[in-house]
Amino acid sequence: MVSKLSRTAFGDTDVGRRRVSNEDAFGMDVDAGVFVVADGMGGHAAGEVASREAVDTVLSMMRKDIPTFREIESGAHTEDTLRRAKRAVEASMQAATYMVFALAETDPDQRGMGTTLSTLLVAGNVGITGQVGDSRIYRIRQGEVTRLTEDHTLVAWQIKQGIISPQEAERSPHRNVITRAVGSRDYVQVDTHVFDLEPGDRFLLCSDGLHGYLQDEEIPTMLTRPTADAVQELIALANSRGGRDNITAIVVAID
Q1: Which DSSP helix (H) or strand (E) runs through 60?
Q2: What is the pTM of this model?
């Protein structure tokens, strides 16, 4: 039997200071332990459609697997249970991909729309992330911040290959080029990661409108606040530093 961990969360989104519309979306089901952030792209408001549809699809699909998550919470789970939970995260994001792609195919104004998609599942003492694009999930544990997701961008790939340095990436004209998105095709490769949860863990899910203004070392201090206060302070910080993009954040507290 695992010790029961509680979870609280708060999320919000803001249009920022330069954009006239908000193509970010987020969703939470605290009882199911599912948290999602998406950053849409595409003209004619298609980015708004893509991000909202993706978030809603993930939440709907993940709720079908609540019995699996409850099994993990009971402490009676096996490796097969964890594999099923991991597959649930991936399958929900694949379903979102197919949904967004299908919608784009039926409406010429939405052709080519897509979205980033970052999903966090917390169940019992287990966490699982799913990642497509360049929104991010951070974990703060005992004052240390760890990025749990990898950006699917051209400059991230160039850094990984040693082609450019992180400093050069900040000035690169290609820094906003996404190499993997939900909805651009009917299938996408989803990165998943399974890890243990500990009491006191804090998680930040956010779009690049926030993490583009935020230094990693600033995150732990800001997440010592209650979840709602932390989210509002993070959004205000991004706006105070330029607010060039839509800003979305979810803070999840495990105790």
Answers
A1: helix 46-63
A2: 0.95
